[in-house]
Specification:
heterodimer, A: alpha/beta, 3 domains, 5 strands, B: 393 residues, Rossmann fold, 8-stranded mixed β-sheet, 6-stranded parallel β-sheet, 15 helices, globular
C-alpha cells in the first residue's frame, strides 16, 4: 500500500471525523459481542492483566458497601399506617385495636408524615455525602491549602541563598528526629563501652567475643578486606561473623558485596555483627542486610544518645 | 539569550523521548541565534548510566555540551529492590529513603550541583528536562535563586509522581513547560503548582516521508501483507506485552494475512508468532517507511507525556489506534480525530475491524491527523512561542 502524498499546508475546507460517533459504534459492537457470548468467560479479564498490574498501585475508593447500605436504607423508607398490626390473641382484642387505630388515625397519620419527611431529608443529606466522597476532585481544601503553603515556603527557602543556613538546620533537625525515632524503637544493649581510637562506643574485642559466644566457628574480619576473605570461605561454614573498621568511604554497592558474602558464609541461624559509625543510615544498612538474605536485624546504640560519640552496632541473623 | 539545558542524557546516539525533546529544543534554539549550552552525563544507556561519551566539553550542532562523569554505574541488585519499595511499595517511604532512591536511580553526577552553583548565574535561563532523574532533583535546588529556571517535567501518571520527594522540587522552578494539556492538568492536580506555565508540545518534521516499499523489502516474509505498525521500545511499561496478547487473540479469532510489525529496541521481545515481525532498532528513514506502509500505527502505551511517534504517523497521514487509558493519547485522538482510543480487548477488536473494513474512514482519520499536526506542531510556531515564554519569565 502506498502512502498518500502529504499536503504542504492545512486544508481549510477539510472534512472532520466524528470520533464520538465512531467510538459509539465501536462500543456498541463490543457490547453486542459480549451479550451474544462471543467471548469465553474470563477472556477480557485475562487480557486486562497488564492494565491491572500497571494501575494496582493507584488507590481505589471502595464505596460499594456504602452504596449497598444506601440501597437497603432506601428500601425501608416507607411509613405505612396499614402496616401496624391489629391482631391480638385476646378475645375481642383485634376489634379493640382496630377501633383505637381509627380513633387516633389523624394523629398517627401526622406523626408518620413527619417521620417520612425527616427520613427523606436524611436520605438527601446521605446522598450528598456519598457524592462528595465519590467525587475524584474531593479534597479537604483547608488542609490542602495549609500543606501547599508549607511546601511553597520550603521551596522559597531553597531558592533564596541567604536562607540556606536556616534550611540546612531544618534538614539536620529532621535527620536527628528520624534517628531519634529509630532509637526509641531499639533496646539499648548493656555491656562495657570500650575505648578504641576516637570511637568510645565501638565494638571492643571483649564485646565481640561476648556477641559471638555460642556461634562457633566464628570469624572477625576488617571491613575493607572482608569481601575477598569471605569469597574464600566455604559456604554456610560460619556460625558468627564480626565486621569491624567502620563504613567511611564504603559505598552501598561495596557493602552489598560484603553482606552477600557474609550471608553465603554463615549457616542458617548464624549472626553477623557490624560496627557502623559511618555515614550510612542504620535503616539503610538494615535494608541492605535483609536484601542479602538476613532476617532479623537489630540496631543498638552505645552509649545511649544523646551522649557524644554514640556508636551504632548492627546484628543480623542469617 | 544564554540558555542552559540540563538533562540526564544528550547525544545523537541517545534514544528516549525526553532526551530527544531536549536536544531538539537546544539545537533549534541555537540555530535561531541563542547561545545554548547543555549540562549532562556521559551516558548513552539509561539502564546503568555508564560513562560512554568522553568527558569534558564538545560542540554538537552548534550547542556546547558539558559532560560530567557518573559516580558509578547503577547496579540493579541495589536499585531493583529500592525501586520496588520506594515508588511501588505499599507504605509511604521516609524522606531519607526517597532521597537515597533518587541518588541510586541516578544518574548520580557528584559534580552537577557544584558546576551549577559556579556557572548557572551566567545564563539567562536554566532549562531542566524530566522531573524523575537526579539531574533535575539535585540541579534545580542548586540553580534556583541563581538564575531563572524552567522545568519540563515530561510527567505521566506513574507511581514516582506521587512521592513526597517531588512536592518541593516541583515548586522550585520559576516556570513550567508541558508537552500536552493532559500533562499540565496532571501536574496541577497533583502538586497544586501556581508558577507561570506553557504548553509547548514538540515539533514534528511535517515534510519527512518514508519509503514503504523499501521497508517491506527489508522484512523477510512480510511481502504485501497489511500490517499494524508498532514503533517504540518493546517493554511492558509501553503496553507492548498487552499488545502482543491482543494481536494473538485477534488473529486467533480472525484468521487473515494482517500482521503486526514491531519497530524498536526489544527489551522484552515478543514470543515467536507467524503474524508478528520484529524489525528491531532501525534508522529514522526505515521507521518512517514502516509507518508509511502501515494500515495504522498502534500506540498501546499507558505512560506517555507526548508520543512523538503518534504525531510523526499523523504527519504521514496514517490513522492510529491508541491506548484509551492513557490520558495524553486519548486527548490527542479526540482533539485531532486521527486516532481511535480503545479500552480493553473488545474495543480494540471492534476498532481494528472498523479500520480494516472502512477505508474511507481510515483515510479521513489520516488526513485529520495530518491537519492536527500541521496546525499545532510545526517547529517554527513552537519555538517562537517558547522564546516569548522564556523572555517573559
Amino acid at each position: 500500500m502506498d502512502a498518500p502524498e502529504p499536503t504542504a499546508s492545512a486544508d481549510p475546507s477539510a472534512e472532520t471525523v466524528d470520533l464520538d460517533a465512531v467510538l459509539g459504534q465501536i462500543r456498541q459492537r463490543a457490547d453486542e459481542r459480549r451479550r451474544s457470548g462471543e467471548y469465553p468467560p474470563g477472556l477480557e479479564h485475562d487480557l486486562d492483566v497488564h492494565f491491572r498490574h500497571i494501575v494496582e498501585h493507584r488507590p481505589v475508593r471502595d464505596l460499594d458497601s456504602l452504596h449497598k447500605a444506601m440501597a437497603d436504607f432506601e428500601a425501608g423508607l416507607t411509613f405505612d399506617l396499614g402496616s401496624i398490626p391489629t391482631g391480638s390473641r385476646m378475645p375481642g382484642g383485634d376489634v379493640l385495636h382496630r377501633t383505637v387505630s381509627k380513633l387516633i388515625s389523624r394523629q398517627a397519620g401526622w406523626l408518620a408524615q413527619q417521620l417520612q419527611d425527616f427520613a427523606e431529608a436524611v436520605r438527601v443529606v446521605l446522598w450528598k455525602m456519598i457524592e462528595t466522597l465519590d467525587s475524584p476532585t474531593h479534597v479537604h481544601a483547608e488542609l490542602t491549602a495549609e500543606l501547599d503553603a508549607v511546601l511553597d515556603r520550603l521551596a522559597y527557602y531553597e531558592r533564596a541563598p541567604a536562607d540556606a543556613a536556616m534550611l540546612g538546620s531544618i534538614l539536620r533537625r529532621l535527620e536527628a528526629l528520624e534517628s531519634a525515632q529509630l532509637r526509641v524503637a531499639v533496646p539499648v544493649a548493656p555491656g562495657p563501652v570500650a575505648a578504641q581510637e576516637g570511637a568510645p562506643g565501638a565494638l571492643s574485642p571483649e564485646l565481640v567475643a561476648e556477641r559471638l559466644a555460642g556461634y562457633e566457628p566464628s570469624a572477625v574480619l576488617s571491613l575493607p578486606q572482608a569481601a575477598p576473605e569471605l569469597a574464600k570461605t566455604e559456604p554456610a561454614s560460619l556460625g558468627g561473623l564480626a565486621l569491624l573498621g567502620g563504613l567511611d568511604g564504603v559505598s552501598p554497592e561495596a557493602l552489598a558485596d560484603v553482606f552477600g558474602g557474609a550471608a553465603a558464609s554463615l549457616r542458617p541461624g548464624g549472626i553477623m555483627v557490624l560496627d557502623s559509625p559511618g555515614p550510612l543510615h542504620p535503616a539503610q544498612l538494615a535494608f541492605l542486610c535483609r536484601e542479602a538474605g538476613f532476617s532479623d536485624v537489630t540496631v543498638e546504640w552505645r552509649p545511649p544518645p544523646p551522649a557524644p560519640g554514640t556508636h551504632c552496632t548492627l546484628t543480623a541473623v542469617r | 539569550m544564554r540558555l542552559l539545558f540540563v538533562v540526564q542524557r544528550y547525544g545523537a546516539e541517545v534514544p528516549g523521548g525526553a532526551e530527544l525533546a531536549a536536544r531538539e529544543f537546544a539545537t533549534r534554539l541555537a540555530t535561531r541565534g541563542h547561545e545554548v549550552e547543555v549540562l549532562t552525563s556521559r551516558a548513552v544507556s539509561y539502564v546503568d548510566w555508564a560513562d560512554a561519551y568522553p568527558p569534558g566539553t564538545e560542540v554538537l550542532d552548534g550547542v556546547t555540551v558539558h559532560r560530567l562523569g557518573v559516580f558509578a554505574p547503577r547496579e540493579d541488585r541495589i536499585f531493583g529492590p529500592m525501586h520496588a519499595r520506594v515508588p511501588f511499595g505499599a507504605f509511604r517511604p521516609p524522606p531519607f529513603f526517597q532521597r537515597e532512591w533518587m541518588r541510586v536511580q541516578g544518574p548520580y553526577l557528584p559534580e552537577l550541583a557544584p558546576w551549577l552553583r559556579r556557572h548557572a548565574g551566567s545564563f539567562d535561563v536554566a532549562i531542566f528536562f524530566t522531573y524523575l532523574y537526579y539531574t533535575a532533583s539535585a540541579g534545580l535546588p542548586a540553580a534556583a535563586g541563581l538564575t531563572r529556571t524552567v522545568l519540563h517535567p515530561t510527567a505521566h501518571d506513574e507511581p514516582p509522581l506521587y512521592l513526597s520527594l517531588f512536592d518541593v522540587m516541583m515548586r522550585l522552578p520559576a516556570a513550567l513547560a508541558f508537552l500536552t494539556e493532559e500533562e499540565a492538568e496532571l501536574v496541577a492536580e497533583r502538586f497544586h503548582v501556581t508558577q507561570p506555565s506553557t504548553i509547548t508540545g514538540l515539533g514534528v518534521d511535517l515534510d519527512a516521508t518514508g519509503d514503504p516499499g523499501a521497508f517491506r523489502r527489508s522484512i523477510p516474509g512480510l511481502g504485501d501483507r497489511p500490517y499494524l505498525a508498532y514503533v517504540g521500545r518493546v517493554d511492558p511499561g509501553k503496553g507492548s506485552v498487552e499488545l502482543f496478547d491482543y494481536v494473538r487473540e485477534y488473529k486467533r479469532r480472525h484468521p487473515s494475512d494482517l500482521a503486526l510489525v514491531v519497530v524498536g529496541d526489544p527489551v522484552e521481545p515478543p514470543p515467536p508468532h507467524p503474524d508478528i515481525f520484529v524489525a528491531g532498532f532501525v534508522s529514522d528513514a526505515a521507521k518512517r517507511g514502516a509507518v508509511a506502509g502501515a494500515l495504522a500505527l498502534i500506540q498501546p502505551s499507558y505512560f506517555e507525556s507526548f508520543s512523538l511517534v503518534l504525531l510523526e504517523a499523523w504527519a504521514q497521514s496514517r490513522p492510529a489506534l491508541v491506548q484509551g487509558r492513557c490520558a495524553v493519547l486519548d486527548g490527542h485522538a479526540r482533539r485531532s480525530g486521527g486516532g481511535i482510543p480503545y479500552r480493553g480487548f473488545a474495543e480494540f477488536e471492534a476498532a481494528l475491524d472498523r479500520l480494516q473494513s472502512d477505508g474511507a474512514l481510515a483515510a479521513a482519520m489520516g488526513r485529520a491527523g495530518r491537519r492536527y499536526a500541521v496546525a499545532r506542531y510545526g517547529w517554527d510556531g513552537i519555538l517562537a512561542r517558547y522564546e516569548e515564554f522564556l523572555a517573559g519569565i
